[in-house]
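ugh finaly. both done.
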Amino acid sequence: MEQIKSYIEANKERFFEELFGLIRIPSISSMEEHKPDMEKCAQYWHKLLLEAGVDKCEVMPTKGGNPVVYAEKTIAPNKPTVLVYGHYDVMPIDPIDLWNTKPFEAEIKDGKIWARGADDDKGQSFMHAKAFEFMVKTNQLPCNVKFMLEGEEEIGSEHLYGFCQDHKDMLKADIILVSDTSMIAPNIPSITTGLRGLSYWEVKVTGANRDLHSGLYGGAVANPINTLCKLIAQMIDENGHITIPHFYDDVLVVSDYERSLMAQAPFDLDKYKKELNIDDVCGEKGYSTTERTGIRPSFDVCGIWGGYTGEGAKTVIPSEAHAKISTRLVPNQDFNKIGKQFSAYLKSIAPASVKVEVEFLHGGDCYVCPIDMPAYKAAEKAFETTYGKKPIPTRSGGSIPIIAGFDKILKTKAILMGFGLGSDAIHSPNENYPLEQFFKGIETIPYFYKYFAEMMA
């Protein structure tokens, strides 16, 4: 295993060339115009995995969605099996004018890879392919390995649920290994033990049957943008508490003891504010910043539009206003139930002067990883081997809805070994991935296989 560092050094230029080829494919799953790029990206992964040493690899269709890349390497039937999950789709790049580099032309600068997908999740998934390649080339792979790369994670993995249901036997494994999360800091390894759930909607508020002259009709006819803003403002009270009736009924309340353990994780509030260029934080009263993003639900407007936004002035009352809204959910909250509660509440507080429509876009339940299972212990030991210190268990504010789906459909737990950092700007302009994290991931993953195989023997 000591050979891994020299293997990385000897092959790093090839790694960059291969990863940058993957990044150049603009696989934006939320945009129909990029549908051909999804197939192209899947085929690129097919080639990568075959060259890495899998026994077989297929680009498999889903029922109406983007293809899944499946591959496997069998060492022996009696050996444990690890299923590596990742996604090849990426977020849109807007607003493009805020990028300092070309989003799909990866560039190495200041010790980082700058590009859309550099971290989330092309860079992190690619680490697994190269760690696997090393173990195959050096004849050190101690267990069976399967790969599943999907193209819809950023839009809710809608078609992967059915794919898993249809291919349970093929996807059978002892653990699912995922790198799509972050660490506390470059020198503070951590393992993500919890992901928040998600419920996401698009709201449309309609007033008059056409745009109106704001002088002739202003003050007499409802303005959908004004109304939408008022409706949104009523969703959170002065204490940061979400006002949807029964929203908190099923929230799992974390004990004071567990909260005290969470508080031991290093967190510098002043540094946090400085990095974000904000004067203060906000959120639910009675909880710390890390608790607000780890163990409590949240409500956010992700986008809002309507009316005239072009150059100069146009005095109109718009006919329509729109918003994309999401909630992050915690253990015991059901995203379908929350979706119905949100829709019912929004419509109940809307005035008769407008019509309100709510479209559910996607969602998923939260996931909590048991810290006493062999895979967690193996990941813990792997981090300790390469970083020289024990990783801290953390709960992420983010969501990977399909992880809970794996638990329900495949009856298989997932271990979340993420190497990203909070400063990587995933989902934002200028996404990046530090080279140190990229290489450290390739170095650490083989140790997970080694220790997991030993613990399962």
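ok and the 2nd:
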Amino acid sequence: MEEIHNWKSWIGTDEAGKGDYFGPLVVAGVYVDGEICNQLLAQGITDGKKVSKQRIRKLANWMWNHHEQHIVVIEKMPHEYNSHYSTLQENGDNLNTMLVNLHAEVIQKLVDITDAKYGLVDQFAKNGLIEKQLMNTYHSEKSQSNSKIKIREIPKAERDIAVAAASIIARDAFLRGIEALSQQYKIKLPRGSYKVIDTGKEFVKLHGTDALRNVAKLHFRLTKVVLEQ
């Protein structure tokens, strides 16, 4: 982590579900200081993309039990995600705009709780957009906190313990979300965007075209194939 920063306390954020056709989009943030950092390291917290489903659940449960007050999660289930995405498209925006807004919202909620001065994000767009969103929207309108936060956006930020912790929390929430949808519609919804077309077609056969928006991210090109007769 010393290669990235030398902060004593900070916020890390990450998302899950962005590349998955089925299931929600989740953005999570975790605040750490020296003591919390040592506790997370002792638990073996690492990038959620490299951890088994069982291990993710165990680590996420531990974090919620011990540091619930330092965690913020925003989950967009598919029906809400699709509605939000349609509005963005009408305004000429895209998924990155949604992600910028969600990361900024998560960070601001944690700033209000912890008064953190620094935040680290796994880079997904042009640098500076999240900090600009915080300055333009949250500090001027939505937040009562007057503190300013410096945001760093870097590739492979999961090397950092706070971002790694956020990746675990986000991944766990995504897995729980897709499992809940699978149970609700009585069909196993696969993760990822590979080998999902057959499941999509089966879902439409069982529940109809309109219901697809409740389980899938419709702007994926896969939707056209799923709906082909």
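summary for the 2nd one i guess: Strands lie at 9-16, 25-33, 71-76, 118-122, 150-154.
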